[in-house]
Amino acid sequence: MSVETSRRRFLRNSAFAAGALLFSAHLPRPLAAMAAAESTEPVVLAAGEWRCLKAITACIIPTDHQPGALEANCVNFIDKALANEDAAAVPLYRGGLAVVDVVAESRFKSPFAALKSDQQVELLRGMETDSIDPWPLGQELPAAMLFETMRMHTVIAFLSDPRYGGNQHFSGWKVVGYPGSEHHNGGYTRAQVEGKAKVVPVWDRGSH
Amino acid sequence: MKDKTEMFDVCVIGTGAGGGVMIDRLTAAGMSVVALERGPQISPSEFNEDELKIVLRKQLFSPGKLETYRSDTEAPEETGNFAEIVHGVGGSITHWGAWAWRLRPDEFRTRSVEGAVPGASLADWPIGYEDLEPYYDKAEADFGVAGVSGSNPFEAKRLTAYPNPPHPWRPSSHKFAGGAKKLGYSPFPLPMAINSRVYGNRPPCINGGACRGHGCPISAKATSMSVSLPRAITTGKLDLRAPAMVYDLPVGKDGKLTGARYLDSDGRQREVRARHVILAAGAIGTAQLLLMSRSGSFPDGLANGSGEVGKNLTYHHFPIVAASFGEDLRTYTGVEALVAVDDLHPSDAKRGFIRGGVIGESNVASNQPLMFGALLQSLTPGARWGAGFKEKLREFPNTMLFTAICEELPRAESRVDLDPNVKDQWGVAVPRLTKRQHENDIAMHRYFKNKLAELAEAAGAEKVHHVDVPNATIDQKTSQKGSTHNHGTCRMGSDPQSSVVDKWCRSHEVPNLWITDGSVFPTAGGYNPTLTILANAYRVADRFIDEARRSSL
């Protein structure tokens, strides 16, 4: 797809003005939770969009000696959020991801997901600082806004309850050192509050 | 249709802290009460610590809530869900942090103490600490406050002991106290309205950690839902209707209210009749409803002959410093705050501003991962993603917050009115918040932030971060759009020209209308307001019952 086509397609599909509100409180739609957990089937994103976004999330929270966005399945969280609460952001992702691949092709002759990791990081850094020139979507959807939306979504996916389809196997909570929601798991003893007894995370206690 | 003929002694609008106490006391006195709550019934089984759903998406406590915001009349307007309040049975006290303070005596008399301050609308309360003191005792007893009497050298004098002992301290609490002592302050256990032992038929806290911003699934936290409403329900005198969105308070030929008109869950218009109406919909909702209730005798809104309804919208401001230490501070356990210092509370103009506030440990944003992730946005410019960001995420268990509750000066221009363009899901004009800070607030905010950083250093922090939390930071450019603490839109006072209700919180203009929420506060004080809302409601309830018995109502 050419730069101009992708731009026009974005504009045509987009009811979405600049100023994406991810946590828009006025979208009373059903929770994404239910079927989201563990599902790896895209319901909103096309296969190519899914691949591209998955590679982007992996740059935002990389895998090291501990899991990152890939293992947490952050792309799945975003896909399910787009099917529900964050449906207003679908045109942004649709138009934006296509353009990320267009820019990747024009710079490095490959779609984003196939780039080397330093090329991916370079491109995302350019988006973050709005310094990709030309950016096909211009001011309709500034690169920095697209990047910020994907960045926030990835972080939220990594840290939210696994029922929403990210943070799989508590991978995000393991990285931050959050032992899980305790009120429904018996709470903490006085000795645990005081730091005198070990805290066993919920996933090591057979309740999950 | 049946509603038309049904007559209650009292209609209470709003079921939070102020409404809950009235419902409790008046049903206990044998009166028939219909309570109308704008939001739905919420079950404690839904209090599941789901940070995404409850805190970020606000799907449990205020789905669909809308306000508009502008910093002043010339500024552009935004539409959003700004005020951190609850629309649901039990009101905003459901997700409170449970810090339970008595105001200091000087906080009832700021106009007398400070004199006139340009740009501010300081006013004395028509009551003093001595009027509220017995009702503070009552509120602390009913809500089971845990604390150590006499441990705060700067508190108002008190004759009774706290009913419950303090909660166990985390390592972070000891860091805070150690730093405070090093600086010559007097740290003390922060009084919390959360059970530290079995009390009032409620269990002790199980230290789950996700407390402020959430409901308590085991009712260890004292709220309208866990204390006031259950008692009222057992009397058989309460008819609780929710959701019931009141849109009009009709006035009869005698100038008295006849009851309330509301929309039920199906959007049908309903009406109840009552001899008295007690309005406790919060400082925003109460002003909104009065302004909506226009009639021939009240063309500018009910009880608004003075034009004062909606003015003087006052919050608190919340300086915050985050600090990380080289160890697990257990901030993901326990109640929100365990230790405080009040040394910087007394007003001292030599500091470059008047008034003050209390400083406390807080685990907000260091108790659950999503808020911590949000906190990192302001901590780490330049490391917002990638390997550096991931390293920062790992500091979660080692990070604690130092925060202050600072008295904001009231401004007449900061106000609630009805948005001329934006309507909510019921087609009702949303409240428009016009709100900006006073210069004094900015100076105080800066001062307290520096003091918090000093405290964190003294506590031995490895890294200290001044945090710019959206909607908490204030400076020349940035205002708070919405708050959990809302006061001042229907001031109590003795002069009908400059206040909305009298010292008994009864309307100057409508004899059977009473208001018992934070809207009646002429000024905000430098502490969390809820215990004062409760105490004031107990005071008004006694008066109401007294007058009813003498048949002078």
Question: Brief description of this entry?
Answer:
The complex is a heterodimer of chains A (about 210) and B (about 550). Chain A is an all-alpha fold and about 210 residues long.
> Regions of chain A with pLDDT < 50 over 5+ consecutive residues?
10-31
Rg of chain B over CA atoms, rounded to whole Å, is 22 Å
Biggest sheet of chain A: strands, sense, closure? none
Which architecture of chain B would the CATH scheme give at its second level?
A: 3-Layer(bba) Sandwich
Helix-strand pattern of chain B: EHEHEEHHHEHEEEEHEEEEHHEEEHEEH
Largest sheet of chain B: 7 strands, mixed
Q: Could you characterize the architecture of this molecule?
A:
The complex is a heterodimer of chains A (208) and B (553). With 208 residues, chain A is mainly α. Chain A is built from ten helices and no strands. Residues 10-31 of chain A have low confidence and may be disordered. With 553 residues, chain B is α/β, with parallel strands linked by helices. Chain B is built from eleven helices and 18 strands. In chain B, strands 1, 2, 6, 7, 8, 9 and 18 form a seven-stranded mixed beta sheet that branches. In chain B, strands 5, 10, 11, 12, 13, 14 and 17 form a seven-stranded antiparallel beta sheet that branches. Chain B has a four-stranded mixed beta sheet with strand order 4-3-16-15. In chain B, α1 links the parallel β1 (7-13) and β2. Chains A and B meet through α7, α8, α9 and α10 of A and α2, α8 and α9 of B.
